[in-house]
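@channel sequence for tomorrow's demo:
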Amino acid sequence: MIKRISLGLLVVALTTSCVSKKIYNDLENKYADLKKENRNISDENADLLKAKSQLELDRDALNKELGKAKSEHDKLELDYAAANNKYDLLQQSYNALEKNSNEALKANMAKNRDLLEQLEAKGKALALDQERLDKSSQRLGELEALIAAKEASMRKLKETLSNALNGFEGKGLTVEQKNGKVYVSMENKLLFNSGSWAVGSEGKKAVVEVGKVLGDNPDISVLIEGHTDDDPYAGSGPIADNWDLSTKRATAIVAILSENKSINRKNLTAAGRGEFSPLASNSTPEGKAKNRRIEIILTPRLDEIAEMLKEIN
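structure tokens (generated this afternoon):
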């Protein structure tokens, strides 16, 4: 537009009569000013266009951010709705629990009372059991001490008998302790002739020595057993068989022991075992000799032990 104005002025100036140089210079100056102004306007226009482009870019970025914010907002709204839903469900559950809490509490309290009563009853029962156990343990200790004392007494008895019968060593006489008892075994060669139940002088000396020891131990029970080999009895007279012979031999030993007035006859028992409890095989002469014997079995009184066992049981 400025260019058109300037061109028009120039044409007018040329077509008219000659103008003064001053006017021409003025026009030139105005033209120059207009051109400068035009350039400034063009520069401003370019700056405005650049600013416009930047604003458009900023606008697009803001729109993008706005869309993202809207998406996040929508997600937050969905999360909020879900959380609110969950809260409603929890509130319903809480209300249901609160409604039933009193009844459940009462039921649990009743159950706890029953359990406490059961525990109290069991505690009392355990206390009684413990008391009985303590008493039983005490009695058991006393029983063990009594058994130990009996064992010690029988060991001493065995030693006393061994010393008293030392002179008959090697003559078919042995003394041993086993199963809480003391066994004095005398072979028939020390005591009897074949087929006889009369005790010889040497054998009687041994039995008398046993009687002396028994007289000093009046609480000992004494079982005298007669034994034979398996050869059938071949003698005559009142003897029927080996069993009968073994019984008469045991009775003969009892008679000698009974001569000692310190021995309580109630503690003496005679028994015949015949050939039915051999120590060795009857297939050899040596075995037969071992089987023909008298066994004096000494047993401590066990009345106290039996009573204690009853109490413990």
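heads up for whoever presents: The mean pLDDT is 84.
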